[in-house]
Structures are given as structure tokens and as C-alpha cells.
Amino acid sequence: WLHCEVPRIACSDCGKTTQMLVPWARPGSGFTAAFEAFALALCRDLPVSQAAALLRCSDKQLWRRIEFYVEQARAQERFTDVRTVGIDETSVRRGQNYITVVHDLDAKRLLFATEGREHKTVLDFVDDLKAHGGDSEQVKHVCMDMSAAYAKGVGLALPQAQISYDRF
Description:
By secondary structure, the protein is an alpha/beta fold.
């Protein structure tokens, strides 16, 4: 274990006492930057609950770090070259819990994932596409299953795109 005391600064103007920023950790993290990097590397290859048990911390602490860095990475994403997308659903757990995933089939990368499998998920994708610099008018081709909900969503949000149905 690594323990250290972080100096505190008393503000004479407002009367608050705050911790100094340290070069080895993100503010408010509670972990060093090296530990966060190691933990995230573990989470790429292991389920978060297993990584948490291995690191002797709670999975909630790891999920907070994952969410923080995913939000940072997503803020830097640019979807300006998206022309061909694939839309599909997958089961999250046994039962009827589904998520919709949208991939850029040219760049072979995940663009968007959200809960549900109704037409609104396609509309949400188009909003996210625009938020990341993409243009729904440039999407010329959509590959998806024969879901009526996805067909409705594509018809509303991507009317200029041609649809190819996958055989599954």
C-alpha cells in the first residue's frame, strides 16, 4: 500500500481548505495514475468484478474510472467519415434485456450503443452522430436485420440510405 499526506491549502478569501493537486493522481480519484492505468488494462481482459476482486477494491470504484475515461474518449470522437453503418441488437442478460449497437462498417468500429431495440434507438444514434461531427445525409448504406422497428427508424432518420438486410 502507498500512503501519503497531500498538503492542504487554506484560502484566506473564502475560508475553505482544499487539497493541492498532485502530479501522480487525478483530482478526487483516490488512486494513483499508474494504478488507474493498470486497473483499466485489467478491465480490458477481465470482467470488472474479477478485476475488482484481484485489486481488492469495489467494482463500483472501477466502473467510475471506466465511465470517466470512456466519456473523455467519446468527447474526442469524430464521425465525419461515416458512410456505411451496421445496426443490430444483442442480449445483455438472459431474458428480454436488449441493447442496440451501431458500427461503422468501413472503419470496423463501434459508434453507438444504447438500451432497447425500438425505432427510437436509430433516432438517438443520428443525434449522437451529429454531436460528433457526422452528417446523417452522408450515410448511404445501412446493413441491419429485418426488424420493423429499425426499418422505421432508418426511414425516419436516414431516408436517403439504402438498406441491406443481413441473412440472420
